[in-house]
Amino acid sequence: MLGEEARQNAVKCIMVARKYLSQGDLASAKRMALKSKRFQHLPVADALLKQLDDIQNPTSPASPKSTNTSSKHSNSNKRSNHSTRNGAGAGSNSKPQASQRDSGRLGSEESQGEKENVQVRYTASQARIVREVRSEKDYYKLLKIDRSASKEAITKAYRKVAVRCHPDKNPHPKAEEAFKKLSTIKGILTDERKRRTYDRFGEEGVSEAGSRGGGGYRHNRFRSSYGYEGSGYHAFSEDDIFNMFFDTGRRRRRGRQDRAQDDGHPRGFQMAQLVQFLPFVLILLLSFFNQSHKPDIHYSLVRSSEFPVPRTSPSGTEYFVSYHFNRKYSRETSVLRSLDEMADAEYFHKIKESCDLERVVRSKSISAAQRNKEGGAQAMAQRLRQAHNLATPSCFRMNSIIDAQA
């Protein structure tokens, strides 16, 4: 545990050092890099210290003018370091201004020499893998695997790419961001539901389903595997409906309740409010009573080992039941009719959820295309056309069902 904590502290120090380097504060950057080595020796710390040393002591030949500039920079840096060690800054105005000038000069010199130092900071291969991970939206292409790859193959491919983006191995400033994205990709592709969502709707669909579904899925009381994929939604339970009614009632009547209390009649109003809720309570009680006396019927919209026998409702919805279902309920006309209706309702519900998600993805794609100004007006118009033309097969199917019932 101590070794892991030391490594985490060392990585944090490296991140702070890079931040100071980007701001031009070389002294603070070097201090944090050395502090990182006190926690744990990481190769990236040595690379950062070498980069700082190259910036402070350039070895490339320079003209007399650049030599003078470098000398002035070195002297100013020494003065800055000396004032820092002696506790400078206790109310002096000139020293902070000088420090700011030095930082600005260092940042300018760093940006001018960035092309020369890029070989020292990170290799072209390291920069390329980070760029590919951050920009690629096709997870399978990024990991170089088939869309039907197993979890073991996905994990193996993930490790192969992730090791090249790990901050301890890759000193690129965006390496940590790329590494986190790879971890997210692995989590999506090794989760059956999230993977189906990604395969159907892509990266936008995964993020949208996660935000709507809260990162989890809830099953209804019928152990059903839904035939339409990619949904992070869940059906309302009896508790959800009860809370929805009561919360709505409280919101609608809050103002009137306050006025009633001001008039000196709070208890009478509360009783009237409870009386108004009695019908909903009775409905919920009757619903629970009816459900408790219904036969335990299980079905699925997709074939499985548990539900292998196909059935088709009068409206054309195909679903599957267990082997013993026909033997047990073949003469129960009311049960069969009820099951057909439930399968139809569930199928339509999942179609509608998928349609809603398709519309959200298309809307987000249109907004992203409108914000993206790269490539000029022609490229923007092409992206907008592609976004508007995104297919919505679930919406087409839902409209077909509605038209057939009309």
From TrEMBL:
GO biological process: cellular response to misfolded protein
Comp. bias regions, Low complexity: 65-74
Primary location: membrane
Top-level lineage group: Eukaryota
The UniProt record lists the keyword Membrane: yes
Bias (Basic and acidic residues) ranges: 102-118
Keyword terms: Membrane, Transmembrane, Transmembrane helix
GO MF annotation terms: Hsp70 protein binding
UniProt-listed Gene3D superfamilies: DnaJ domain
Disordered: region residues: 55-119
Subcellular location field: Membrane
Protein name stated in the entry: J domain-containing protein
